[in-house]
Design a protein that fits this description.
Helix content of chain B: 10-25%
Distance between the termini of chain A: 57 Å
Low-confidence stretches of chain A: none
Structural class of chain B: alpha+beta
Oligomer: heterodimer
Order of helices and strands of chain B: HEEEEEHEE
Mean pLDDT of chain B: 88
CATH architecture of chain A: Orthogonal Bundle
Helix content of chain A: over 70%
Strand order of the largest sheet of chain B: 2-1-7-6
Shape of chain B: elongated
Number of helices of chain A: 6
CATH topology of the largest domain in chain B: mini-chromosome maintenance (MCM) complex, domain 2
Strand content of chain A: under 5%
Strand content of chain B: 35-45%
Mean pLDDT of chain A: 89
Number of helices of chain B: 2
Number of strands of chain B: 7
Order of helices and strands of chain A: HHHHHH
Radius of gyration of chain A: 18 Å
Number of strands of chain A: 0
CATH class of chain A: Mainly Alpha
C-alpha cells in the first residue's frame, strides 16, 4: 500500500502571516477575558496587529491575518458560526473594506491614527448593520449607536497611537541595525 | 510625528459623527406605543416593537393600520380624501393620523406626551 502524501509548500509569506495571525488571535483571546459594561464594546487590540500588517506587508496580508483571526478566534472561544462569530466577521469585512479605500489617502496627512479610527468605525458599522438587520431589528439599537460610535472613536484613536509608536520604534531599530 | 493634519481632521469628524448620532438617537421623543381609536374609544394599544397589522371597522368600512419597529401608519382607509393615509409613517411621540370619515385614529405615544389632550 502506498501512502499518498499531499505536500503543501509553505513560503516565507505564509509563515509570516501565520505568525502575525497567531499574535492577533492571542490578543483576541486576552481581550475576551476583559469584562465589558456593554456587550460588543471591546478595545479591539487585534486590530493593532491587522493595521501593522497592512502598513508593512500590504492589504492582502492584512486580510489574511484578519480572516484567520476571526475564524480561529471563533474556534477557540467556542463561538464558531454563532451570532457573535458572524458579527465579528461582518465587522472585520467592513473594516477591511474601509482600510482598502483609506490606505490610498495621502500618507503625509493621514497616518495610522486615521486608518485606525476609520477601521474602528467600519468595524462597529458592519456589526451594527448586521445586528440591526438580523438579530435586533427595531429601535433598540438606535439608542445604543452613540455609545458604540464613541467607543470606536476612543479605542480607534488609542490603537492608532499604539500602531504609530510601533512603527516609529521599529523604524528606529532598522536605522540602528543599518548603522551597526 | 504621531498626529498628522489629516488625523486631526478624522478625529474631529469622528467626534462630530458621535455627537450627531447622540443628538439623533437621544433627543426627540421616538414614540414607543401606538394608540388606535375607533369612534373616540381606544380599541388597541400596540407597542412599536414588531410588525403588526390591525383592521379596525368604522362606519364606512375597514381601516388597516400597520405597525413596524419604531413607526406606525394607516395603510388603507375608505375615506374619500385619504388624508390619514397620505400622512405616511408616524414616529414621534404626539404624532397622530386621523381618518375622520371612518372615525378611526392612530396616535403615537412615548415616555413624555407633548399634549395632555387635543380637541379636533
Amino acid at each position: 500500500m502506498t501512502r499518498s502524501v499531499i505536500e503543501l509548500p509553505v513560503n516565507a509569506d505564509d509563515r509570516r502571516i501565520a505568525r502575525l495571525a497567531a499574535l492577533a488571535i492571542g490578543l483576541t483571546l486576552a481581550e475576551a477575558a476583559l469584562p465589558s459594561p456593554v456587550p460588543g464594546i471591546k478595545p479591539g487590540l487585534a486590530n493593532i496587529v491587522v493595521l501593522l500588517v497592512l502598513l508593512q506587508y500590504g492589504w492582502r496580508a492584512a486580510a489574511w491575518v484578519s480572516g484567520l483571526r476571526v475564524l480561529a478566534g471563533g474556534l477557540l472561544l467556542g463561538s464558531l458560526f454563532a451570532p457573535g462569530f458572524w458579527l465579528s466577521a461582518a465587522g472585520a469585512i467592513t473594516s477591511l473594506g474601509v482600510l482598502a479605500l483609506a490606505r490610498h489617502l495621502p500618507s503625509q496627512y493621514f497616518g495610522p491614527i486615521s486608518l485606525s479610527v476609520l477601521a474602528a468605525f467600519g468595524h462597529i458599522g458592519g456589526q451594527l448593520a448586521l445586528a440591526g438587520a438580523w438579530l435586533l431589528p427595531g429601535i433598540a439599537l438606535i439608542k445604543l449607536m452613540p455609545v458604540f460610535a464613541a467607543a470606536a472613536l476612543v479605542f480607534g484613536a488609542v490603537n492608532g497611537v499604539i500602531v504609530a509608536r510601533f512603527l516609529v520604534s521599529s523604524g528606529r531599530d532598522k536605522d540602528m541595525q543599518q548603522q551597526a | 510625528m504621531l498626529l498628522r493634519a489629516g488625523d486631526a481632521g478624522v478625529l474631529l469628524a469622528g467626534t462630530g459623527l458621535v455627537i450627531t448620532l447622540a443628538l439623533y438617537a437621544w433627543s426627540g421623543d421616538h414614540g414607543d406605543t401606538a394608540v388606535i381609536r375607533a369612534a373616540g374609544q381606544i380599541v388597541e394599544t400596540a407597542s412599536l416593537t414588531h410588525i403588526q397589522r390591525f383592521a379596525i371597522d368604522g362606519p364606512l368600512g375597514t381601516t388597516q393600520i400597520e405597525i413596524e419597529p419604531g413607526r406606525a401608519r394607516v395603510a388603507r382607509d375608505p375615506s374619500p380624501r385619504q388624508l390619514c393615509v397620505k400622512q405616511g409613517w408616524l414616529t414621534q411621540s404626539g404624532q397622530a393620523a386621523l381618518c375622520l370619515p371612518n372615525q378611526v385614529s392612530v396616535e403615537i405615544r412615548g415616555r413624555t406626551t407633548a399634549y395632555d389632550t387635543l380637541g379636533y
